[in-house]
Amino acid sequence: MSEANERHLQRAQAELRAGGAVLLRDDQNDVLVLSPERAAPDRLAALATLTGAPADLLISRRRAALAGLVAPIDPDDPRGVEPVAAPIRDIHDPSWRLAADPMLSGDGAAARAHALGRLRPAGRASAAAIALAKRGGLLPALVAVELPAGQLPGGATALDPVIIDARLLKEGQIAAGHLTRVAEARVPLADAENCRLIAFRPADGGPEHLAIVVGEPEPGAPILARLHSECFTGDLLGSLRCDCGEQLKGAIRTMAASGGGVVLYLAQEGRGIGLINKLRAYALQDRGLDTVDANLTLGYEADERDFRPAAEMLRALGHTRIRLLTNNPAKVVALGAHGIEVVERVPHAFPANGHNAGYLSTKARRAGHML
Ligand SMILES: Nc1nc2c(ncn2[C@@H]2O[C@H](COP(=O)(O)OP(=O)(O)OP(=O)(O)O)[C@@H](O)[C@H]2O)c(=O)[nH]1
Ligand SMILES: [Zn+2]
Predict the structure, then answer these.
(1) Interface confidence (ipTM) of the complex
(2) Which of 99, 108, 126, 153 has the fewest CB neighbours in a 10 Å radius?
(3) Residues 149 and 76 grouped into a single domain
(4) Record-annotated residues binding Zn(2+) (predicted)?
């Protein structure tokens, strides 16, 4: 993707996050959207009265099923993450918001069914809008109106939308972007005195990824490496809900004890759904869902990560053959697909504590982790 397009996407994402409107253009039809968790009620009302037709709530098919709008859908059915559109009968009647509530709280199925009309599959521009919301760490639930391609009704000018080409959000184009190595410093760690941090900045202006270079890993040799997705709760606070803190410190210690290695600290909090949504997923887990179903309920995939930036960083550091510390076979496959040879998978498991046994067994049972 060109730098101008990356910049444009970032602008659209920021606008949606700030409660503003985005118009996504496609050759079928355009769609004008607002995020109901961010946009002011008067803006939502202005959007809903823009054309003669009602505005739609765009949500995942699974969320629609959980909200009682369509028949239940099997947890492993891939159609669950497809976006659907449900007409909002009256934007001023807050019942429709129950289907856009992260927790799907209350016993609002009847109210939801009354507040929302007959569901239909979302078009391409709407699917792109949902991808934009996900990129921005928002709940994938949007209020939208469909417009004929290339037209913007007079009333829409007041909403002052950022206009983007929906095709920019096609999968594969959004993620990697090229990375620029921007800063480097020596940072002695308690567990690894000889340590350097190298920061990489994505072209789209997204958050930076870090390489934690422990010791002196030899370029060309199959070095020890770990892909570690950011976990504020586990890495920083020592949360017992997951195993991230131990895995991070454990990797650094293992590398320091064996001559060196590289931990890639990836800005992919919550397996790519962001911290806010991870906290929402935790709240759903406290109601009995497992980590996979919690993500799916929010309208996210079980794992939204793209490991291309990791492969790119390894290549930039001169390491194309690695021994990967992981229990996750998907990381081995993803690196292989992006030109990094994983010559060995090194198991990286830690004993369960009193809080994360269920989390770990779900990883093994539903995400194929070798635990
Ligand atoms: N959505 C979600 N993310 C979680 C949850 N618990 C931990 N995470 C995130 O999961 C990620 C953990 O990733 P990693 O440890 O890199 O990877 P992994 O897929 O578990 O694979 P390993 O290499 O075997 O550790 C971090 O971004 C955490 O924030 C959860 O319950 N829900
Ligand atoms: Zn964690």
Answers:
(1) 0.97
(2) 153
(3) yes
(4) 231, 242, 244
